Amino acid sequence: MNRTQHYSLLKAMEIDKSNLLKYQELYKYAYILSDGIFKIVFAEEKGHSLLISLVNAMLNLQGDDAIKDITLEMQEFPGVFNKKDCILDIIGTTNAGEKVLVEVQQQGDDFFRDRVEYYISRVIENQVHTSEKYELPRIYFLGLLDFELFPEEPQKYIHHVDEMCNGRKFFPKIQKIFVEIDKFFELEKAGITASDNSEAAQWLRAIKVIVKEEPVPEKIMQNETFRHLLDSVKLINFVEELFNAEVKNMTDLKAEHEIGFSEGRAEGRAQGFSEGAAEERKKANEERLEMARAMLAEGDSIEKVARIFKLSESEVLAVQAKPAAQSK
Fold first, then answer.
1. Can you give the pLDDT at residue 320?
2. Where are the alpha helices (H) located in the chain, listed in sequence order?
3. How high is the mean pLDDT of the chain?
């Protein structure tokens, strides 16, 4: 299930919670980059083997540098006085005392980079206590992005961002790694990453199976970690209450509406947001109509489909008359 399909699920459940059953019949996997799904799969697993494998792969930590164990901590750093809270998707301490921050971001916005710096600064603030010397642990920030943050590098999907001085890393203890997931999918489609056998690429191929609802490649199926991942993210595993919470919050949907409307936006940027929002609405509507067609094919009445999807009977009849390929 991809982001658009996930939003369609939330909208359908907002109308009728029983629609979750319909989506469980249509889709095998949940949207792994949803905050709720991601935290359940990677933070609630005993031993955190999936999280450790993911972080080691994306940070390219091998041998003695690889994370062997991780202890997760409270995700929230409350703001002091009138300062904003800092709530991370995952934060943990490794066996070597290093800090690992993982943030999943579904949609870009003008202040995403600012937020990353703010999050890291809040974590740094909590590392040195009274009477201790100013010695920080190594801090890794891993951003998993379902959007393009570095359009100027069209053939690179993992980006290591460092503070540099005269061509050298000024403070190598803090490392920021951003992974453009959808860009990797496009590079795979174009055959550009065909020879990329890195652990990061293998992980992203496994995620691609989930997001694109694709058949599982033999190499992925042979990997015990990826088999565990695929089993963990099956849509049937997740209860109604989780999606009800996402329906209530609609955090990412609200973020979409904020894009392009920040102070100081230029007219061109506002137009870009409008076009992007229109494309998202178009995709969501296509998913809605496909869901309606599937319900009709399964024998649900025209009246019920019209009520659930807020369509007129003539619109439902038009959806029913189109083959699946045309309805998309």
1. 83
2. 3-15, 19-26, 35-43, 49-59, 112-125, 181-189, 199-212, 218-221, 224-232, 240-249, 251-258, 267-297, 302-309, 313-321, 324-327
3. 85
Q: Is the dihedral of CA 19, 21, 26, 27 positive or negative?
A: positive
- Output phi, psi for 114, to 5 deg: -60, -40
For 293-317, what is each residue's pLDDT tens digit? Answer: 877 877 777 877 776 666 777 787 8
Tokens in use for 140? 């890794």
The amino acid at residue 118 is Y
Please, what sign has the CA dihedral across residues 54, 111, 249, 28? negative
Backbone φ and ψ for 81, nearest 5 degrees, come out as 55, -115
Q: Once rounded to an integer, what is the mean pLDDT over residues 103-127?
A: 90
Q: Of 110, 105, 132, 138, nearest to 270 (Cα)?
A: 110
Q: What is the pLDDT of residue 174?
A: 94
Token code pair at residue 85:
């809270």
Our measurement of the distance from residue 268's CA atom to the centroid of its chain's CA atoms, rounded to an integer in Å, reads: 27
Whether residue 264 is predicted with pLDDT greater than 60 in this model: the reply is no
Quick one: DSSP state of residue 83? P
For helices 49-59 and 35-43, angle between their N-to-C axes, nearest 10 degrees = 110
